[in-house]
């Protein structure tokens, strides 16, 4: 089956219909892969072509797409990721999310670039993909089980410990709107609630085993890029290896951009208790990685009674540290680690979960929610017990947890009494742990991201750092000077546009942003894998195209420029800290967003690419799709 | 003086004031060179900053800029060119033109990236640049002399045969509006009339001798690119070496795109008499090259009495073969060779000169001009004697020649009687020898080019070829499919936009388009020369920026979208030949141009980049310059 001439992509997409339990194969050619690559752009192609506007995200008409990119599975750090996309039950619009681990490369080794899940099973099932063989298997016995237990059960019954599993947990089964899907237990497609979509389809897991080699057009070229990283990561990524993604907590706190107490503050007095170095010195028992990556940014922690945290559920990353920690005013690292375990075991996005709890805490402190609403829980900032308890309640949809399982936007609407003011969400998705008041370009990203608030498509070190390798690297895109993190000038919008197009490309590739490759190295890697003669130009345009497709999807669902807004809180100054005297101007932000539209060739009202821009992006067919929005 | 750390650019620009005979030095940093590179973009920077709108192109306020690029003079084929820019006496707008030869690399070896000529001398002078030493020397004894004689005289009096000379001839002295400047006799900056600008300043020549090494940041990388060409040109550029640029005359004729009898036809019955292979078999006595280039596309021809063509004046290139040949209905190759010699000796653009004569011939045949106007010359198509005679008359501004020396636009306005219909010019500049009816995207290029009708910034093989290496190469820019030469769809506009941005980059680099390097190889060459970490993205944006600067210059001079038009003739069908049943639709063309504006982020009425696009191109300062146009 391996087609050597096609380089690092197989050109085969598996279609799975859960309603009638059938499968089929889509085969696409080089033109398709150069245009849509994989990840976000491939998702955009299929969702726009195949979903009707207005469908229920949790109904059988939604489709769930797992997709690697053309370099996924190459023996090079960063290439072990996949993307997942569907219409999001959080936003009723575009949803895509990425995760690493080992499942993506395994899928590639089984010969598949992507899986499109359609329809809905009438009982719990899981998929068993063994190279070309695809089996629908009963999952009734897995339903309700924690992810670790379910994975072990699957590996046991398939009698192969090397089977890789992507799955939902009970939160996904219970249609928690921010339920996640996880690869290999600890690598979560966290954002946008794809776990609920998978749950609505009664699909518990996708087990994969591949035995095919991945054809590389120019293995030497791939090895060269891979080797560079191996030779340099110890210096360049030292902090990431040592303390994981939360190594920078102290720095963020100092700069007043550590989201604290539901974004009311940017500094957390207990920051040091939850910082990466503290974790390293206390509960860390191991480091983990993704396929082919030596950086080992993933954590393994162990905590004894009463928390009893199992290292097999990994350890909290920065997003989790902040969302379950500072955002909830919690400085108990062990409780945060337990919260992380709960989310991984139950299959739930730690970012949204933390936001929901922090939102509820603020409502409680302001008297909008009372003990009556919380089943007697003293739901105050800093209450670690309450945080862990609420996580359990959300996954089980118990009491207030049932309301919070809908996400902050819907919960606030039901609560009323001005609660929406404290729901830190955009388009229905909760904010990640990055403070736009201290890196203002990210505010544009939050506002325009088709996923709702999201940092994976939108954030870049250059938005905060004013010197160092990320800035040096940006010269290759023609960005020659660092700009203040507080700068919202058109020059900043330009920088934002370039890095965001690249970030979108990374999510098409689907490559990790952590290995510090240059733009040219990624281009070399693509060439090595595929035998194409690509350039950074072509890759940047893939990213821009991906964003265009996603925006078009949202436009068809009724989203316009009016929805590209930030929560009002971000236009309020902090009451203390170094940013106290800085104010993010609402008009400045609105102006920057309008400038972005014009720079990007978007219609200023509809906030989607004009017909000419769609032509320029080689996706003229989207113009027709946009007409369906009316 | 050599600054090794700066790679293949010295960062030194020589300013020469002819009025008071002073010189000074501009030093620019890496940021400047990455933004403006050299060539067209560098010219744009200085002309926009330093010329006031409305100045007389032939007055002392005009400036004449000679500029190499950051890779000029590297030991790699294609890197032996320079650009020249000034306000054009043909268009009263933007003017820039490129030429190869050996003078550009010599200037670089003398330590200069560019020369800005200001003011006006009160008597003929020439400049003598010997590394850092710059001397103003009397040129009274050279005034009126043919270029070969003048060059030999300069080399003799400077006592150095290796002195390289860029100069005008008598046509420039006489302010023929399409006078050229030539490097090393045979390499002409032909378009836009810079020779007249130089003549108006009484500057006959710039003699240069350099003794400095060119610092290369990574010589190995440069050598690798250079070696690839040396290893492959015999196969890839075989036709160009063998027959020069006119090797394709038969193919063009067959496709009905050989401009004939003032663009009335696309096929010429005498095509074979003037084709490259005929030249090779008859009058060719040698092949010549530019600095560091093995391709040898330049010709040397020799013709005996009565023509007496001296091989030191080279031989006709395709543009000359067509403009003095088929365009004038002349199938006498020896006469064309003589015409070429006259133009090189007198310093005159062969394209414009041929157009002027063809225009006059059509007027004569239509009775708009009579023998009274022509001093008795039977100025009919096919009259080779008349063609040669008129060239002489133009350079001397004698009789009808004095009128034609103004260019077809001004001549037609003076002639009246509907003569303008037969003036094949855009914005005042005559059309090159490429037929937009058979490669329609070029029509957009002619219309939007800030230089007026021009092929050096606008043409690309992909506009005509539907397969082969140029198309394969374009995949690196995301252009995956060839399009019919007659296609004017938005997809074609997209292809046009990408190749035109790249063509503009080539004229910033200032690199020749003939060596078949890939986009990545050029990026490697730039990195090797400079030590930057550039990408094709950054280089494409340099090209787009260059075009934006030039359009802004024109807008300030009053040009708007209304001026982006083609001569009406191109909307008429040919009366015979394979394109007979094809018609270039005027509305289709207007629509394509509008599509281009939108794709490029240009204001649809002013036809210049919007403020946001200027920001995106990192030249926000231009917005302010545009306000000066009112």
Write a concise synopsis of the structure shown.
Chain A is α+β, with helices and mostly antiparallel strands and 630 residues long. The first copy, chain A, is 39% helix and 12% strand.
Write a structural description.
The structure is a homodimer of 630-residue chains. The first copy, chain A, has 630 residues and is α+β, with helices and mostly antiparallel strands. Chain A folds into three domains: 198 residues, Aldehyde Ferredoxin Oxidoreductase,  A, domain 1 (4-Layer Sandwich), CATH 3.60.9.10; 186 residues, Aldehyde Ferredoxin Oxidoreductase Protein, subunit A, domain 2; 188 residues, Aldehyde Ferredoxin Oxidoreductase Protein, subunit A, domain 3 (Orthogonal Bundle), CATH 1.10.599.10. In chain A, 39% of the residues lie in helices and 12% in strands. Chain A contains 24 helices and 16 strands. In chain A, the strands form four sheets. A six-stranded mixed β-sheet of chain A has the order 2-1-6-3-4-5. A six-stranded mixed β-sheet of chain A has the order 8-7-12-9-10-11. In chain A, strands 13-14 form a two-stranded antiparallel sheet. In chain A, helix 11 packs parallel to helix 13, helix 12 packs parallel to helix 14 and helix 19 packs across helix 21. The longest helix of chain A is centred in the C-terminal third of the chain and has 21 residues. Chain A is globular, with a radius of gyration of 22 Å. Chain A starts with 11 loop residues before the first strand and ends with a helix. Chains A and B meet through helix 1, helix 19, helix 20, helix 21 and helix 22 of A and helix 1, helix 19, helix 20, helix 21 and helix 22 of B.
């Amino acid at each position: 089956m391996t087609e050597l001439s096609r380089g690092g992509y197989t050109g085969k997409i598996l279609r799975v219909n859960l309603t009638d339990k059938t499968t089929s194969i889509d085969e696409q050619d080089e033109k398709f892969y150069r245009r849509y690559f994989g990840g976000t752009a491939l998702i955009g192609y299929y969702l726009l072509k195949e979903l009707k506007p207005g469908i229920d995200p949790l109904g059988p008409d939604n489709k769930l797409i797992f997709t690697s990119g053309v370099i996924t599975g190459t023996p090079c750090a960063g290439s072990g990721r996949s993307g997942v996309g569907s219409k999001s039950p959080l936003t009723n619009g575009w949803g895509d999310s990425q995760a690493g681990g080992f499942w993506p490369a395994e899928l590639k080794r089984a010969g598949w670039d992507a899986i499109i899940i359609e329809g809905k099973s009438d009982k719990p099932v899981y998929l068993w993909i063994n190279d070309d063989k695809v089996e629908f298997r009963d999952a009734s016995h897995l339903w309700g089980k924690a992810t670790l237990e379910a994975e072990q059960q699957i590996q046991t019954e398939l009698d192969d410990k090397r089977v890789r599993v992507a799955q939902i947990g009970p939160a996904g089964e219970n249609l928690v709107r921010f339920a996640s899907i996880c690869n290999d237990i600890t690598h979560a497609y966290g954002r946008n609630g794809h776990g609920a979509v998978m749950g609505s389809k009664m699909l518990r897991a996708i087990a994969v085993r591949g035995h095919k080699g991945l054809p590389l057009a120019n293995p030497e070229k791939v090895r060269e890029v891979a080797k560079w990283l191996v030779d340099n990561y110890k210096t360049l990524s030292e902090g990431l290896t040592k303390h994981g993604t939360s190594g920078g907590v102290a720095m963020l706190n100092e700069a007043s951009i550590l989201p604290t107490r539901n974004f009311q503050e940017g500094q957390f007095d207990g920051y040091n208790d939850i910082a990466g170095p503290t974790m390293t010195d206390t509960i860390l028992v191991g480091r983990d990685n993704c396929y082919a990556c030596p950086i080992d940014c993933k954590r393994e922690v162990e905590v004894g009674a009463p928390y009893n945290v199992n290292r097999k559920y990994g350890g909290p990353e920065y997003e989790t540290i902040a969302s379950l920690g500072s955002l909830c005013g919690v400085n108990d690292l062990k409780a945060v680690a337990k919260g992380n375990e709960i989310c991984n075991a139950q299959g739930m996005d730690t970012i949204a979960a933390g936001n929901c709890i922090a939102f509820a805490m603020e409502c409680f402190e302001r008297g909008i929610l009372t003990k009556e609403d919380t089943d007697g829980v003293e739901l105050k900032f800093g209450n670690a017990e309450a945080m862990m308890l609420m996580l359990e309640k959300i996954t089980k949809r118990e009491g207030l947890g049932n309301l919070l399982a809908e996400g902050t936007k819907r919960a606030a609407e039901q609560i009323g009494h001005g609660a929406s003011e404290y729901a830190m969400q955009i388009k229905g998705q909760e904010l990640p742990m990055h403070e736009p008041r201290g890196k203002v370009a990210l505010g544009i990203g939050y506002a325009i991201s088709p996923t709702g608030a999201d940092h994976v498509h939108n954030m870049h070190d250059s938005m905060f750092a004013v010197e160092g390798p990320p800035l040096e690297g940006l010269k290759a895109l023609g960005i020659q000077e660092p700009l203040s993190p507080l700068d919202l000038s058109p020059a900043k919008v330009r920088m934002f546009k370039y890095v965001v197009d690249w970030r979108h490309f990374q999510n098409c590739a689907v490559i990790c942003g952590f290995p510090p490759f240059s733009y040219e190295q990624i281009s070399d890697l693509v060439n090595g894998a595929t035998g194409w003669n690509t350039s950074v130009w072509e890759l940047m345009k893939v990213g821009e195209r991906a964003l265009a497709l996603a925006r078009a999807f949202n436009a068809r669902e009724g989203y316009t420029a009016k929805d590209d807004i930030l929560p009002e809180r971000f236009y309020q100054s902090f009451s203390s800290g170094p940013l106290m005297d800085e104010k993010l101007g609402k008009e400045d932000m609105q102006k920057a967003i309008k400038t972005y539209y014009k720079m990007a060739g978007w219609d200023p009202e509809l906030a989607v690419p004009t017909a000419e821009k769609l032509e320029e992006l080689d996706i003229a067919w989207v113009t027709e799709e946009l007409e369906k929005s009316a």
